[in-house]
Design goal:
Elements: H1 2-21, H2 25-52, H3 60-78, H4 96-111, H5 123-144, H6 157-175, H7 183-203, H8 213-231
């Protein structure tokens, strides 16, 4: 119950920030960069060691690649929402239903490996929470801060927010019913999703290719937070049984 509450509150907090500070694009970008540093560290220190030491390790790389490809497909629907490209979403050519479908599937799949999670502050869970906040910030800005005279979405704003907030908990609920032997595969897919999103955010070119010390500092901060979590939680290996 606490894990579900954390997942929902992370979305609500992000939407609240987006509603009231949605015009501050730099704030959203900084939150994304911080979460990207956290996510890529979670991948390398938590997710990948677990899946590659499982009994399924001989084919697990295929599922990591599938995660990367899946995220690329989802971005055709979200138009780079997860990377902070929310200037595209001021246009009329984005379909809210396509955006929400992409975001829902993204969050739903991330929730599946939480099916048997017992540790409230596990790095994997916190990685999702950290990533939910900037995405929800952008979602809140998109839903509540449309320009004057701009056509608003015909879809109920709070229903959209509720669907996104419940996506990961619904994935977590479904994860409880899967055979534990499938856990490494789902975790590998999410690892691929995390890896793609975080690497795009971190390695996206700066303007004129100048050194952005703020970006570097935020990435280091995100990495440091993830490493601290790595040191202070119990490590378990997925056995596939």
């Amino acid at each position: 119950m606490i894990i579900v509450l954390l997942l929902i509150l992370s979305v609500i907090a992000g939407v609240f920030l987006g509603k009231h500070f949605g015009k501050k694009e730099k704030l959203a970008k900084n939150l994304l960069i911080l979460s990207a540093g956290f996510l890529i560290t979670i991948c390398l220190n938590e997710v990948f060691p677990q899946v590659y030491t499982s009994e399924k390790s001989n084919i697990i790389g295929i599922f990591v690649i599938l995660g990367v490809l899946l995220q690329m497909i989802l971005e055709a629907l979200t138009k780079g929402f997860e990377h902070g490209h929310f200037h595209h979403h001021n246009d009329h050519n984005i379909l809210p239903v396509a955006l929400m479908a992409g975001l829902f599937v993204h969050a739903f799949i991330e929730g599946i490996p939480l099916g048997n999670e017992k540790e409230v502050l596990s790095p994997y869970l916190l990685g999702i929470v950290f990533h939910n906040i900037p995405i929800s910030f952008i979602l809140g800005a998109f839903l509540f801060n449309r320009k004057e005279g701009e056509k608003r979405s015909p879809y109920p704003t709070y229903m959209i927010i509720a669907l996104f907030a419940l996506a990961s908990p619904m994935g977590m609920l479904l994860g409880n019913y899967f055979n534990p032997e499938l856990q490494p595969y789902f975790l590998a897919i999410v690892g691929g999703i995390f890896l793609h999103i975080s690497s795009v955010i971190i390695f996206e070119s700066n303007k004129n290719h100048n050194i952005d010390w703020t970006k570097i500092g935020l990435v280091i901060l995100g990495i440091s937070l993830a490493l601290i979590m790595h040191q202070f939680h119990s490590h378990s290996v997925i056995s596939g049984h």
